[in-house]
Hints:
binds uridine-5'-diphosphate; 331 residues; alpha/beta
Amino acid sequence: MSILVTGGAGYIGIHTVAELIAHQEEVVVVDNLGLGHREAVQALNVPLYEVDIRDRDKMISIMKNHQVDTVVHFAAFSQVGESVRLPLKYYQNNVAGTTELLAAMVEAGVLRIVFSSTAATYGEPEATPIVESHPKHPTNPYGETKLAIERMLHWSAEAHGMQSVSLRYFNAAGAHPDLPIGEHHANESHLIPIVLQTALGLRQKVTVFGTDYPTQDGSCIRDYIHVMDLASAHRLAVQKLRSEHAGAVAYNLGIGKGYSVIEVIDTSRAVTKREIPVEWGTRREGDPAVLIASPDLAKQALHWSPTYLELSSIIASAWAWHLNHPNGYKS
Ligand code: UDP
């Protein structure tokens, strides 16, 4: 019995692989390495198939050869801004790719999947903290593709008995405390890596996208969750799928607490003891003012509890990675 992790060479994927193998699971990674890092998978010494999830025949043979019983599915494009410019690229990779993956799973008789979803499925929140039943009106194609996949999982449960847990992440951050894996994106757009690269002197300044939001300091508020806490939720979701038949369910993953962009920068200054120059910029299109999760359902249903509850500990974890790997996997 083994777990197939698609997109396992990516940021959240590789941390989940580390968590699974630390709990004695057999893991096999499928990644086309379009965005993922071979070095990350090599650091964990797990089998890697450089295969695209749209290659149905290869996916079926990998599932059969490794006696896969559950898939943890990360493989996707995930940049909000790019999805607005290139929506078809996102539909093609995320929606069409997952359609092929699910078809391969049905054909191979693998009927359990943990799906990497997102808070972007909700769109502009009507109430905070966000609960799972909150209306879903994504404000960008990225969120639309993830929501379309959640709906596909619902109908696949009805038709094929596919059991799924969709995990809607808020803002992932941090790195593994012991292993040489962490966050490395080719075109970094996320706040915490950008702030820490600025602390390292690799960037001149951080631009704060919007200072006129209706928040205490005018900048956006987000719920930052440590990547190892995301990873443990995926492991517990696999356990849940193996122990019961619940159809298609979805849970939020956040810590239930929000921090503003300015608080992230100030906390990073305190953690790194470095200068972090800032410039005040305009709003980034499609950014809601406040995104905070209610993680209660995940805690109850998965018996999960996040362990990094302070922004400073999440930033300290990310800083350790950036300090030791200033060029990510290239250093
Ligand atoms: N942000 C910012 N400057 C940057 C990158 C991000 O002010 O260079 C803000 C962004 O507008 C958002 C928050 O930081 O309010 C978190 O953005 P990120 O891209 O990390 O995650 P997202 O919330 O888009 O998933």
